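Example complex used in Figure S2.
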Amino acid sequence: DGGITQSPKYLFRKEGQNVTLSCEQNLNHDAMYWYRQDPGQGLRLIYYSQIVNDFQKGDIAEGYSVSREKKESFPLTVTSAQKNPTAFYLCASSILGNYGYTFGSGTRLTVV
Amino acid sequence: GESVGLHLPTLSVQEGDNSIINCAYSNSASDYFIWYKQESGKGPQFIIDIRSNMDKRQGQRVTVLLNKTVKHLSLQIAATQPGDSAVYFCAESPGANNLFFGTGTRLTVIP
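Predicted assembly (223 residues):
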């Protein structure tokens, strides 16, 4: 079955550590996205990529980094510079053009 | 950024009744709209979409209505079931792979 997979489902980070969240899709989608969701709030765009080896900052990119070395993969690194990283992180993908996104099941990151 | 908002943050309905979730959008250039359903601890799931050349689109138990004159979008769920309890997001797109999401409405179905 085609889909988009995020791992791990739960992640705990110590203060000062970098952590990387995985996102893989086998939908042959060109575009991929990372969103952050805080309790009771909507989705805020962190980074997006429309083509391999290229990505753009979203509304809240500070403290995050991404790479897009393969079409299928768009990992997100939450760096120690992100002061409030505890949140639910969602990855999505889409074909190019004016179409909806397919979302993964999310990763819940907690700083301990 | 875009302004996509919802009139009510919460909605409670009796099982079997119809639900209507509303959404206002501000960008008159938006020509594609989507409704997503998000259950607790999961990613949003696509429910139904509509393009600006349509006023109404029906799916299984769901209908989306688009009023471009007042920039309003609604999602109607017929015969609401307990499994419909979730947060519902509308999203609008003016094109170029840009989707802008509202904050969501939490629907609670009362048995």
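The first strand of chain A starts at residue 4 and ends at 7. The two ends of chain A are 36 Å apart (CA to CA).
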